[in-house]
Each structure stands twice: as structure tokens, then as C-alpha cells.
Write a structure and sequence with these properties.
The structure is a homodimer of 190-residue chains. The first copy, chain A, is mainly beta. The first copy, chain A, has 2 helices and 11 strands, in the order E-H-E-E-E-H-E-E-E-E-E-E-E. Chain A is rod-shaped, with a radius of gyration of 31 Å. The first copy, chain A, binds a DNA duplex (30 and 30 nucleotides) through strand 1.
DNA sequence: AATTTGATTAATGTTACAATAATCAAATGA
DNA sequence: TCATTTGATTATTGTAACATTAATCAAATT
């Protein structure tokens, strides 16, 4: 039942310009594949209600409100602060699993620098944990404490320093050798 | 002077995949005309961000005092009587000076590795401390959080990574730039 | 040994296209 | 008469295609 009498060219016919979801014309641009989702979310995000406010601690009695998205040039892409203030953190809870068997050791010197344990770092040692090959352990050899990576050489245990400049130590039967625990963490003050 | 003896099909010929300015494949997407410039700037700006989640100190942390030993003292412990050697320590107290102005940020990537800040470390940031040149700071650049070393060059602030593979960032007037605090410590779990 | 050259393939900005959606007015039907 | 349907028209929108540029390799040349 087609006829030629409906429609037809006439001014004002057809979809109105600006009736798309952006209310304006569009262009195609090329962007990295990994950021397609991010950009699509961003350009579709309601502009009006964009009032993300993050509260961060401040020494003054009343906490300061820091407004994000007040950029001068590129306006408001998703910021890490958007949804990233998640939870609170208790350092004791985070770093100490078993407080009954945990203690700290303050490190002197740079012999563990390749395991990124530095002079004056404090390491967290759990003496209840069974040391496995590859673990960073606190051991004593002939009455001296040392922090090393546990390896195994035939049947005798072997301690690898994390710093290449130091020689591995093969534990002989005659040596007093004791593993005091496994290093489970490290903390540092700047 | 054309001949058919150069080039020719052979494995490995031609431009390498991923050699473009994004280091990955691209796609075309349609965006509002008014935001083309903004998005092009955004996807091309230096990726300074090296932080992940932001956390606040726990309001009611566990109080755990554990023994602190010195790496260099001769083994013979535990010797609870010896107060000279043995101290005790609470990690929250040790690392957090001002709870009201402190928060935590998780590090992503290895841009600060020479400052011994590693992937997945958590750094402690004090917002009340005045940042000085040379300090490790948390800053935001155009909405992106980053941990960097604060420097100054010709009166413009500069953010230096602690890894020669990364480029310093010169802060221009046109950039949104804010210093959020000074990094006062770092913790790591093994 | 260093440089040039031509073939090859990826990157990149733009245009083209097809499918969908919105809009209008004539045609239809109550 | 007035609401609904219908067909033509035009914008939107995601994707494919294209042309130009850039990077890379190995043979040819200096």
C-alpha cells in the first residue's frame, strides 16, 4: 500500500538536529582500546549532578571539603578519588596476623636491599610460620642475627643474601643455626 | 630505479604492532563535538597516576604492643629482663603521628622503586605537613593522583619519579595541580 | 660499514555506510 | 472531527573502509 503522497520533501521534515543523546553534533575520534569504556561512561555521565566531594582528614577541627573536578583545562575525567575512598585501615590488623607469635626487628645495613629491606626498616616476623624455601627469614648463625632468603643446597640449608655483593652462606653441621621466624612484612618511616 | 628484489613478503616485515603513541590498539568512537579537544588532551596526557585506593586510618584500631629487637644485637634473646635491647612497639603509633590528618594510599607500578616504594606498598600520607623540595608527596595532576618527589625548576614545581624509566612532570600554569600531603612512611606485606 | 631504497605493515585521522530513531503530514478509521 | 497509522524524510550512531603517514626490514648502493 505504498503511495507517493505522504512524506515528500518539505521544510521541517525528518528528525530534528540536536535530538541525539548529547544534544549536539558528534564526531568520531580514535582512542586507545583500553579506554573506550572509560570515555564512553564519561561522556554519558550526567553533567549537572557532578558534585563529587571527598572528605579527607585535616588538622583543623572541621574537616576541609576538597572539591574534585574543578580543573582548569581538561575537565573532570574519572579520578582515582571518585570511588576509591573505600575502607579504613588498621595497620596492626593489616600487618599482624598472629600477635602472639609476632615481633619486630629493626634492620641495620643494606645487606637485604635487593629484597627492598633498607637500613632502619622494621621488619615483622612471625615465628609460628613454617619457613619455606624462598621465604625471607630471620635466622641466627653462631649467635648473630641475619635476615636472608631461605634456599636449600642438598640436605644442608643455605641462606641467600638478597644483595648480590654478599656470598650465600651454607649452613654446616657445626654451626649454631636457628630459624626464628618468617618475615611477613616491613615498615619504614621517611 | 624500482626493482622487485627489496622488501617482499617475509616474517617480521613492516611496522611493529603497538608502536603507536598509545602502545596498544585503537578504536574509533563517536563523541560530542564540543568535547573532542578535551578527550584528545586527556588520552594523550602523561600517565602520572601511580596510586590505587585511598584509605583512612581505622577509627578504633587494635592496640598491639609487640617486642622490637635490634638486628645487630647478638642472639641470646628472648631475654625479657634486658630492657636495653628489647623495646616494644605499636605499628599505628609508630607510623601515624597525627591521626586526624593521615591517610593511606596504595601504590601501583614501579615508578618510585628507587625510593624503595614498590608495587602494592601502602604509603602513609600526612596532610598537615608542609611539603618541601625533596619530600615524597601525594599530588593530583588534572584529577589524577600520583606519588612523586617534589622538586622545583625555574620557579615551576616539578614532580620527579624515582625510576629512570619514567619522565619528570613539569607542572604548567594551565594544569590542575594540588599537593595533598607528604609521605611519611610505607608498609609492605610479603 | 654506513646509507639509501623499496616493500611491507601498523597507526591514525577522516569519510562512508548501514541500521536505527525521530519527526512530519497525508491517509485512514472511529 | 479527531486520534491513529503510514510512509517519506532526515539526524543519530556505531562500525567499516579508506588514504595518508610512520616504522621497520633487508637488499642494494655508496
Amino acid at each position: 500500500m505504498k503511495d507517493n503522497k505522504r512524506g515528500g520533501f518539505r521544510v521541517g521534515a525528518g528528525r530534528k538536529s540536536g535530538s541525539g543523546c548529547f544534544g549536539e553534533s558528534t564526531k568520531v575520534i580514535r582512542v586507545p582500546t583500553s579506554r573506550v569504556t572509560e570515555i564512553n561512561q564519561y561522556i554519558r555521565r550526567p553533567q549537572a549532578g557532578n558534585t563529587d566531594i571527598v572528605m579527607l582528614p585535616h588538622p583543623t577541627p572541621q574537616k576541609i571539603q576538597l572539591k574534585l573536578f574543578d580543573h582548569k583545562v581538561p575537565a573532570g575525567f574519572p579520578s582515582p578519588a571518585d570511588d576509591h575512598i573505600e575502607k579504613s585501615l588498621d595497620l596492626n590488623e593489616y600487618l599482624i596476623t598472629k600477635k602472639e607469635s609476632t615481633f619486630f626487628v629493626k634492620i641495620k645495613g643494606d645487606s637485604m636491599i635487593d629484597a627492598s629491606i633498607h637500613d632502619n626498616d622494621i621488619v615483622i616476623v612471625d615465628r609460628s610460620k613454617q619457613a619455606k624455601v624462598g621465604d625471607i627469614i630471620l635466622a641466627s648463625i653462631d649467635g648473630e642475627f641475619t635476615i636472608k632468603i631461605l634456599a636449600k643446597h642438598l640436605s644442608l640449608p643455605r641462606l641467600l643474601p638478597a644483595n648480590e655483593k654478599y656470598q650465600p652462606i651454607v649452613i654446616q653441621e657445626s654451626m649454631q643455626f636457628e630459624i626464628w621466624g618468617v618475615v611477613t612484612g616491613a615498615v619504614r618511616k621517611f
